[in-house]
TrEMBL record:
Organism: Musa troglodytarum (fe'i banana)
Superkingdom of the source species: Eukaryota
GO molecular function: ureidoglycolate hydrolase activity
Transmembrane stretches, start-end: none
Name of this chain's protein: RNA polymerase-associated protein CTR9
InterPro entries: RmlC_Cupin_sf, Ureidoglycolate_lyase_dom_sf
């Protein structure tokens, strides 16, 4: 589900590279009392959204649009992995999800599907899945694998690997197992989304990386 909207009692808060969209880095200024050390300010990374299409989103999952009634099942349909638990399909109401984020989440046991009720525009930050199997658990490029409290190992996502997609119209996203995601985000005050995951996804399968804490980075979506 969301990287920033659940209680830390249930989340795996372990944390710790190429983006398809251009980014611009700025520094945020702050004032501190005389005689105190000023901590390094976070870098603001501005990302231009990419329109979500089956081709542009292929590294992260699928974009599913409408099909004719009676059309047979095929590779254009959502390829789901729901066998590790009880599927849960529900409408999720969200408010005040401004176009910025500093946390990103993945689920290790399910393909999550998200779509807006009514087909209004929304945004999702993503990075490719980075989970590791046992044979891959070793230091890579100086990075140390992290074990999630959910049990699996993963390599922390690099800020350069993050990009943002715009989802327009009557379509939904299917996220591959392990795809990092931040959102849904939107410009309106509130929106409703249909959400397909497992009944216990947000309790036992929620691993979050905090870019602000570990990379001193905040992402902002810039149209």
């Amino acid at each position: 589900m969301l990287a920033s909207s659940r209680s830390s009692l249930f989340f795996c808060r372990f944390s710790s590279h190429s983006s398809s969209s251009p980014s611009q880095r700025l520094k945020m200024g702050s004032s501190y009392p005389a005689g105190t050390l000023k901590p390094s300010s976070p870098t603001i990374v501005k990302l231009k959204p990419i329109e979500a299409t089956p081709a542009s989103f292929a590294e992260f999952g699928q974009v599913i649009s409408s099909s004719s009634d009676g059309e047979e099942y095929g590779p254009h349909d959502a390829q789901l992995e729901l066998h590790r638990g009880v599927p849960r399909f529900y409408i999720m109401h969200l408010e005040d999800r401004e176009l910025k984020f500093s946390k990103i989440t993945h689920h290790a046991s399910v393909t999550q599907c998200l779509g807006s009720v009514g087909g209004e525009d929304w945004y999702l930050g993503v990075a490719k899945a980075s989970m590791l199997n046992e044979s891959e658990i070793s230091n890579e490029d100086g990075q140390k694998p992290v074990q999630s409290c959910c049990g699996h190992y993963y390599m922390p996502p690099h800020p350069d690997d993050v990009c943002v997609f715009r989802i327009s119209g009557s379509k939904f996203l299917k996220l591959n197992v392990g795809t990092w995601h931040a959102g849904p985000l939107f410009k309106k005050k509130s929106m409703d989304f249909y959400n397909l995951e497992l009944s216990n996804t947000n309790v036992v399968d929620h691993t979050t990386h905090n870019f602000l804490k570990h990379n001193k980075v905040v992402f902002m979506i810039e149209e």
